[in-house]
Amino acid sequence: MVFGFLRPKSRSKSEAASADGRVVYGVGDIHGRLDLLDQLLDVVAADFAALGRQDLPVIVFVGDYVDRGPDSAGVVDRIAALKAASGGASGFEVRALMGNHEQTLLQFLDSPEGGPVWTEFGGGETLASYGVARPVGRDPEAWRAAQEQFQRNLPLRHLNFLRQLELTAVYGDYLFVHAGVRPGRPLVDQDPQDLLWIRGDFLHQPHGLGMVVVHGHTPDEEPFLGRDRINVDTGAYATGVLTAVRVGQGAPTMLQARKRRPVPV
User: Fold this and answer.
1) Does residue 4 lie in a domain region?
2) How many domains is the chain built from?
3) Which of 37, 154, 166, 198 could form a disulfide with 194 if both were Cys (CB 3.0 to 4.6 A apart)?
4) Where is each Calcineurin-like phosphoesterase domain found (predicted)?
C-alpha cells in the first residue's frame, strides 16, 4: 500500500531538543501486529543497553493498538502487562496513549450503533481477535448481540487498561500525542478530538507550541523528522514496518522492526 498522498511536502531534519535528561522511545501505531511489537521491543532494549546508561528509560506508545492487524487482543495484553510492570520488571517507565481506534472501540462497548462504521476501518479484525464474529450488514439486533459478546470476552484488565489511556505525555521539549495538535492553540486548550484525529492543519502548518510533537495516526512508508514534529506511523499493518524514535540522547534516532511481505505467486 502506498501512503504518498499523505506525505508532507518537506522533510527537514529535526533539531536536537531536550528530554529533561531522559531517554525516551516513542512507538508508532501497532494495529494488531504483535509480531512486530515483540521484535521492536527487543530492538529498543538492545539500543538502550548499547547506550551504557544506568537510568530508567521511557517508552511511550502513541496509540492505535487495535484494528486492521491480526492480533489486537495480543497487542493490548502485551502493552497492558508492560504498563502494569512500569518502572519494575519491564525495565522501562511505560506510558500508553489513546488513539482514535481505541476511542472508537470504547464507544462501541458503550453503544452498538457505531459498530458498522468501526468495522469499516478495522474493527472487524479486533472483534475476531476476541472471538466475536462480525455481523453482516447493519441489523441493530445483530450488532447488539456482538456488543454483548464483546463485553463478555474482553478481559477486565484489558478494559481497565483501555479506559485509563492518556491523551498526552511530555518530557522536556517533547510532546507525545496520537494524532497531533491544533496549530496556534496552547496545549492546555487543545481539544481531545484534535489530539486523537487531526491531520491536515497540523501536518501542513507550524503548530507554534515551541515543542517537538511526536505522533502517529498518519501512515507513511517512511518516518518523518521535521523541525517541530516527528511522525512514527509507518503503517505497520500494511507495510510490515513498525517504527520507534529515540529522543533524549543526541539527534532523534529511528528504530524499526520489519517483516518481509510475502511475494505473490
Assistant:
1) no
2) 1
3) 198
4) 25-221
**Residue 242 is part of a domain; what is its CATH number?**
3.60.21.10
| pLDDT tens by residue, 105-128 | 999 999 999 999 999 999 999 999
**For 35-92, what is each residue's pLDDT tens digit?**
999 999 999 999 999 999 999 999 999 999 999 999 999 999 999 999 999 988 778 9
pTM of the model: 0.92
Instruction: Look at residue 235 and tell me if it is in a domain.
Output: yes
Asked if residue 264 is part of any domain, the answer here is no
